[in-house]
Amino acid sequence: MDPTQLKQIPLFANLTPAHLASVAAIAATKSFKANEKIFEEGEVGGEMFLIATGKVRISKMVPGVGEEALAILEPGSYFGEMALIDDTPRSADATAHQACTLLTIQKSALETLMLANKDLAYELLTTFVKTLSGRLRETNDKIKAFFALSARY
Question: Is the pTM of this model over 0.90?
């Protein structure tokens, strides 16, 4: 994988060329057909994904309603990073919204890389925290809107 391609992904935007080369060395490529499952809610995850081409739908199954799309992610986005932080099952489904090419990074390979390079670890973990914080704020806003709507009925 070309390290300059990684530079376009916000998670890696602040990394040095040497750090980018190190991350590129542990990334693998996977392709998925439209509507193919990437992972399912409840599975134990051991890798994160970066979207090189195509789109990915993050969703949850809502009893009595069906699939509820939480996000449609485009090239440059990443998902599944929570699996790199904790050992809890996946919190949602990920499906190829259209045919896509994903870069994958295994938790064990990234941990080894971060243990060997503290500056890289600091940059990545700071970005992870910012991403998770932003997603938590979005979820809180959605919950607030849901309760505001349900209070009317």
Answer: no
